[in-house]
């Protein structure tokens, strides 16, 4: 159901510049695809005969590294490499007034130059195939983990690049910038794949080594009698906005790790042998003591910024309609959970705060790449000083929770009339 008040972020910017006196703090922000989805180089995998396919590109890579050719760099398709250190992609910054981050893609030749004399010896099994852009200038993209090369950080810093937490890049991304959103999705996929390689070193069946196969898209046990194939791990998580239809309220929870004033949807991992609907009901009951009846699917989002033991979670979002209203919070899971009116939740969609956090983070990335700011603290991204702080806010547009909440706040009925005050009227 299309949200009545939704504006694309770019048209929102136009509106703000045209009518600066209007309050846009409660507008919803609609994205073309969830953050970390919509990866522009993850199209259908080319057939093995295509030079851009994982198989063919990997053959070219092996030839380049074998020393059997004097070619330093393939001319077609070209190769681009994105280095990572401990899950952090190489990034740079541009823009004089409005800072904008970019990924630190290196040509294959540049990458080899940077590695020369470093602790990292370039081997074919270090590079993982990320995808290709098969337009007029075909490019194959690779990710590489160079965490062992301590000296590399300094070499790359000379190019005004630095390794930045993906979460910081996520907050620093301008949602109106399709190119930046695409780059973020590529970095998310690459991080997920490389972290999975890092944490899947041995065979779960026989304990022997696992080695990369299919250009790093899976792994395989080296023991002849085993040869077990292992595929990248995805951890499904249900995330739900629990709704009290009768009183027009939504249940939001607060975790101790959240930044102050932030409330969000309840969420939890799917257990083996459980349906998504069952997981929604079980988690809501366990965390808040609320019973759920109808469960309606909303959307999903890849989430590659969780702990490295879970290289990529898949957030699966639902509306969950409550059949009981008394809250009983499990303090080991949640700090607090409360019913909030639609109006309060609407006010918590504080656009001004998301925009400020985005600009603060983009500036932070710029300063880090110039070597000014060494540390980074994602939690501080939202601790912006302002005289107009909302009493509560919900996660920014980079999180599926934002879109679940925003969809409910701006929900329209089938006849197109906003149902905003329906519950209030029914009580009068
Ligand atoms: Zn094995």
UniProtKB/TrEMBL annotation:
EC number of the protein: 3.6.1.22
Coiled coil, from the record: none
Catalytic activity, as annotated: a 5'-end NAD(+)-phospho-ribonucleoside in mRNA + H2O = a 5'-end phospho-adenosine-phospho-ribonucleoside in mRNA + beta-nicotinamide D-ribonucleotide + 2 H(+)
UniProt cofactor(s): Zn(2+); Mg(2+)
Top EC group: hydrolase
Family under the similarity heading: Belongs to the Nudix hydrolase family. NudC subfamily.
Name of the protein in its database record: NAD(+) diphosphatase
Organism: Ambrosia artemisiifolia
């Amino acid at each position: 159901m299309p949200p009545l008040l939704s504006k694309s972020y770019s048209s929102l910017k136009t509106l703000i510049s045209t009518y600066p006196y209007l309050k846009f703090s409660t507008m919803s922000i609609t994205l073309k695809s969830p953050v970390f989805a919509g990866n522009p180089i993850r199209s259908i995998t080319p057939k093995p005969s295509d030079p851009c396919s994982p198989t063919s590109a990997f053959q070219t890579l092996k030839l380049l590294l074998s020393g059997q050719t004097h070619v330093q760099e393939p001319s077609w398709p070209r190769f681009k490499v994105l280095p990572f250190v401990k899950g952090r992609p190489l990034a740079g910054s541009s823009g004089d007034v409005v800072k904008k981050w970019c990924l630190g893609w290196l040509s294959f030749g540049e990458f080899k130059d940077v590695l020369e004399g470093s602790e990292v010896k370039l081997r074919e099994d270090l590079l993982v195939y990320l995808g290709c852009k098969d337009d007029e200038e075909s490019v194959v993209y690779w990710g590489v983990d160079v965490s062992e090369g301590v000296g590399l950080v300094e070499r790359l810093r000379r190019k005004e690049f630095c390794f930045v937490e993906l979460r910081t890049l996520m907050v620093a991304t301008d949602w109106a910038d399709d190119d930046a959103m695409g780059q973020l999705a590529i970095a998310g996929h690459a991080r997920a794949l490389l972290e999975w390689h890092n944490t899947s070193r041995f065979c779960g069946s026989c304990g022997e080594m696992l080695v990369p196969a299919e250009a790093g898209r899976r792994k395989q046990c080296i023991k002849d009698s085993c040869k077990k194939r292992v595929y990248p791990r995805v951890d499904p998580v249900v995330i739900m906005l629990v709704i009290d239809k009768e009183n027009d309220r939504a249940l939001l929870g607060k975790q101790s790790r959240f930044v102050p004033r932030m409330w969000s949807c309840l969420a939890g991992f799917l257990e083996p042998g459980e349906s998504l609907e069952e997981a929604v009901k079980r988690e809501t009951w366990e965390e808040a003591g609320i019973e759920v009846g109808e469960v309606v699917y909303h959307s999903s989002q890849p989430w590659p910024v969780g702990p490295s033991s879970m290289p990529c979670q898949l957030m699966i979002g639902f509306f969950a309609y409550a059949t009981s209203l008394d809250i009983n919070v499990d303090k080991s899971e949640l700090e607090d959970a409360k019913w909030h009116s639609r109006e309060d939740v609407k006010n918590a969609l504080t656009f001004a705060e998301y925009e400020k956090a985005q600009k603060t983070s983009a500036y932070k990335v710029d300063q880090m790449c110039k070597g000014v700011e060494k540390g980074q603290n994602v939690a501080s991204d939202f601790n912006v000083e302002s005289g107009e702080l909302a009493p509560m806010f919900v996660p920014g547009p980079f999180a599926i929770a934002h879109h679940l909440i925003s969809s409910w706040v701006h929900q329209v009925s089938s006849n197109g009339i906003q149902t905003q005050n329906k519950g209030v009227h029914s009580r009068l």
